[in-house]
Design a protein that fits this description.
Length: 229
């Protein structure tokens, strides 16, 4: 009897050790649909184009993408995120159904493989949700065609977004910077699994604070003017 109890305890310990720790893995192989919330990642295109991304003529050519562009719609855990959850292929014809959703064609397939496969949605449903959230994202008007550089703080920047969407939660947005906190790089807007505004995780908010660690940051203007560097 004692031996049977020991064997049972050993089996339980093996199962606990082998089980994945939900929310702590950034590795592939997670079950599609098994996540906590979404991040809509909106990149500030002038910052991308001011660096090595400037070689991307599709995104950074004259007159292209002067403001925020969709980086991706990413399923998240409260800690970490799933990726590469299945081998379901991306139908290339969907690019024609959702033109201009991403700033370049390569992102359609890349974002589906890495993030979309973890949503539990079919490719068309995933792009449809991404398009809906992108179109309804609370982007202040002046950042749609910014002509002059703007210096601001993270708190003031978030307040501008809140003013155009009262449903945006206080912790529902995270700002990320480049250049050791000197320039605006990207904005994360957080949504629940049904696509409604929700709070970002403490992990994301902490990373945001470390990213934009300077007292303020510069928002580079679009390509219609000389970019501040």
């Amino acid at each position: 009897m004692k031996r049977q109890i020991c064997l049972l305890i050993s089996l339980i310990m093996i199962l606990i050790t082998a089980a994945p720790v939900h929310g702590r893995s950034n590795k592939g192989g997670s079950a599609p649909g098994g996540f906590d919330f979404y991040v809509l990642a909106m990149s500030w295109s002038p910052d991308f184009c001011a660096g090595n991304g400037g070689k991307d003529s599709e995104q950074c050519g004259p007159g292209r993408n002067p403001g925020f562009v969709l980086h991706g719609l990413w399923p998240q855990y409260h800690k970490g995120f799933p990726q590469n959850c299945s081998s379901v292929p991306f139908p290339s014809q969907l690019k024609q159904e959702f033109p201009g959703l991403f700033p370049n064609d390569r992102l359609y397939t890349h974002e589906w493989r890495r993030h979309g496969t973890c949503s539990g949605l079919a490719p068309r449903e995933y792009l449809s949700l991404a398009q809906k959230l992108k179109q309804t994202a609370p982007i202040p008007l002046r950042y749609r065609h910014l002509r002059e550089p703007v210096r601001t703080t993270a708190a003031a920047f978030k307040k501008e977004f809140k003013m155009v969407n009262a449903n945006l939660l206080d912790n529902g947005m995270a700002v990320f910077c480049s250049g050791s906190g000197r320039f605006l790089k990207e904005v994360f807007l957080c949504y629940n699994r049904q696509g409604k505004p929700s709070s970002c995780s403490p992990e994301i908010l902490s990373k945001s604070a470390r990213s934009c660690r300077q007292p303020d940051f510069l928002i580079r203007p679009g390509p219609l003017t000389k970019a501040a560097r």
